[in-house]
Structure formats: structure tokens, C-alpha cells
Design goal:
The protein is mostly beta strands. It contains 2 helices and 26 strands. It has helices at about 170-180, 290; strands at about 5-10, 20, 35-40, 55, 60-65, 70-75, 80, 95-100, 100-110, 115-120, 125-130, 140-145, 150-155, 160-165, 190-195, 195-200, 205-210, 215-220, 245, 255-260, 260-265, 270-275, 300, 315-320, 325-330, 330-335. Strands 1-26-25-24 form a 4-stranded antiparallel β-sheet, with no helix packed on it. The longest helix has 9 residues, at about 170-180. The chain is globular.
């Protein structure tokens, strides 16, 4: 990866959350607006030290969870307890969607959908349960930067056919979710794929679906090689239809990430693959391996501790509008393509 910085974050405590980056809305450090240029534990963000996690990290808001408690830091003010005040030890969030202003909705593993409802004083928000007996059974949901919604339906334990529905807007999706029998609210598109969904993500204008088999499918806006697959060749799927990322064929992919015009995948042997473009068109800070990749190609990214070492195994990757962060098994964190002043921090 070109123009990279590394930080050895050591072995944080299980409840430690490290932060660095833009802090204009105090989304990383309460009571401050200066950018956080050194990774540091965010202890002041946590109302509890038991099992806290980050659900969503947006441009202006960070969303945290602990058990069945959800709260925000930054532009959006939200604090809510899912399922009432009783503790729900088994409550888990499966999908989270949001935009530049903060959290919009979340979906639990049990299939309950919660949406953000603003209070009358417009100073705070709460999470409202939308699910009723008539609600469709949803497994995963994603929101693209263009406002489009994609979702997968829950499958029977032995089911092997993945149904995908698309809606042009969040409001249209919510209207259908409230009354799926209303023909005026039917999905704008419906796709079917063999397999069972594991992850569904979105970036600026496309969707990325990981199946339990390890296969990856993409669809949406094909500009800037954002789909990572050919769309004009013989037998290839159209851009607006889920199609397999052929370059990843034969690999067992275990994790995917998406953001901006980029997407990424991690294979079970710890290899990292990227496709798309870093930043908006004309951006002068790009990633070399993506510039060199042709249409329908995916770049293998090798991260080295030194020039003579074997490539490091990757365990995590996150993508923003114009940057990538990669965590390796030896505790290193690589960021790029921008050169930033983040430094080593041990929690």
C-alpha cells in the first residue's frame, strides 16, 4: 500500500476503544473539537466499562453499544435501551445503517428493526421498534451513499436460496416494512442467488454481498471499477444485478468492507484484496495497486513488516471515503493512502 503509516497498538484490554481522526463534532473525544492525531483509549466516551463496542463510525457521529444499551457521541444525540430496561445478554446487532448525520436504523439478530425517532425538542433522538407480526423477516440490511436500500431475507436452516430486495429510498423501504401487502410499496428490484448471506455492505453507489460459502457478489454503479468485475463480457451480469467477483473465485473470503468507491475482502488465509478507487474522481491521493489494476481486476495487497519479511496476515479492514485501515495478526495497524501523524499507542 502506497504512503502508508503503521501503528503498533499492542494488546488492548477487551473493553478498550482506541480512536484517532476527525473530531470536529466531538465524536471521538467529548468536550473537544481538535482532531485526534494519536491513537488513544476513549475511556471518557463510555458510560459503562462492560463489553462496550462501536456499532457505527460516521463522519459526525460515533454509535456505541453495551448489552442492550445504545448511545451516540458527536452531532447526533441518542441514548436508548432496546427491549426495555431489563438486561438482554443475548441481544446482538446484525446490521447498522447511517449517514453523515448519524444512525438511521439497526437490525438485531432476532430480526427486530429499530429506527431513529427525533424528539419534539429536536435536541435528542430515541430508537423506535418497527417490527410487528406482519413485518417481513429480514436478515441483513445496507444503505448506499445514494440513499438506496438493499436487504436479504431470513432463510430456513436448510435453505440455500438468497433473496435480495432493493428500494430506491429509506422511506419507501419503511413503507413496505410497515405494510408489505400494499402493492404500491413493493421492492423496486428483486434478486435471487444460490447460497446463504453472511455480510451485506454498501459504499457510495454499490453493494457488496458475502455468502457463507466465501463467494463475493457486487452490484450497483460500475464507475471507477467499484464492482471489481467485468460487466460487458460474454456471460457477465449487468451492473445492476448481483454478479460474482471473478478474481476472487476459488478463495474462501471471510470478511468484506466497503466505503467511498472502494471495497475490500479478507481470505481465510489472511490475504487482503482491494478494488475500486480511493477518493472521489480526480483525487490526487490514490493507492498504487488500484491505479495499476485493470477493469474487472482485484488487487492483492501485501503488507510487510520489513522488505525481507513474509507478508503479514490480515485480520481486519475498514474503508472510509478516501482511506483504508488494516489490522494484522501481530498487532500492527496500517493506514493509507494519506500520510497521517497517528503514532503508536499501547492501551
Amino acid at each position: 500500500m502506497e504512503n502508508r503509516q503503521t501503528a503498533n497498538v499492542g494488546t488492548p484490554k477487551p473493553t478498550s476503544i482506541l480512536c484517532a481522526g476527525l473530531n470536529a463534532h466531538s465524536q471521538l473525544q467529548a468536550g473537544a473539537q481538535a482532531d485526534v492525531r494519536k491513537f488513544a483509549p476513549s475511556k471518557d466516551l463510555l458510560p459503562t466499562q462492560e463489553g462496550a463496542d462501536v456499532l457505527f463510525a460516521g463522519w459526525s457521529t460515533t454509535v456505541f453499544s453495551s448489552g442492550n444499551k445504545i448511545w451516540t457521541q458527536g452531532f447526533q444525540t441518542l441514548s436508548s435501551t432496546l427491549g426495555g430496561n431489563a438486561a438482554h445478554e443475548n441481544l446482538q446487532i446484525r446490521s447498522v445503517i447511517g449517514d453523515h448525520d448519524g444512525l438511521l436504523a439497526l437490525l438485531s439478530t432476532s430480526g427486530d428493526l429499530y429506527t431513529v425517532s427525533s424528539a419534539s425538542d429536536a435536541q435528542s433522538s430515541t430508537l423506535q421498534l418497527m417490527t410487528t407480526e406482519a413485518s417481513p423477516s429480514i436478515a441483513l440490511i445496507a444503505l448506499s451513499g445514494t440513499g438506496r436500500i438493499a436487504l436479504t431475507f431470513k432463510q430456513a436452516p436448510n435453505g440455500n436460496l438468497c433473496h435480495i430486495a432493493e428500494f430506491n429510498t429509506l422511506d419507501r423501504f419503511l413503507a413496505w416494512y410497515r405494510d408489505p401487502s400494499d402493492s404500491d410499496c413493493y421492492p423496486d428490484k428483486h434478486h435471487m442467488l444460490p447460497g446463504r448471506p453472511a455480510q451485506l455492505l454498501a459504499n457510495t453507489a454499490s453493494f457488496v454481498l458475502l455468502l457463507e460459502s466465501g463467494d463475493v457478489h457486487t452490484w450497483g454503479d460500475p464507475r471507477h471499477q467499484s464492482l471489481g468485475r467485468a460487466i460487458n463480457g460474454e456471460g457477465s451480469k449487468k451492473a445492476d444485478e448481483p454478479g460474482s467477483v471473478e478474481a476472487l473465485g476459488g478463495l474462501k473470503i471471510t470478511k468484506i468492507a466497503a466505503g467511498g468507491w472502494m471495497s475490500a475482502a479478507i481470505s481465510e488465509d489472511g490475504a487482503l484484496y482491494l478494488w475500486g478507487a480511493a477518493g472521489a474522481p480526480g483525487h490526487d491521493r490514490s493507492i498504487k495497486c488500484l491505479r495499476e489494476a485493470g477493469a474487472g481486476e482485484v488487487a492483492l495487497v501485501e503488507l510487510l513488516a520489513s522488505a525481507h519479511d513474509e507478508p503479514l496476515d490480515v485480520i481486519g479492514v475498514a474503508i472510509g471515503d478516501a482511506h483504508v485501515a488494516v489490522a494484522t495478526t501481530d498487532g500492527r495497524l496500517f493506514t493509507g493512502p494519506r500520510r497521517v501523524a497517528y503514532q503508536t499507542c499501547s492501551a
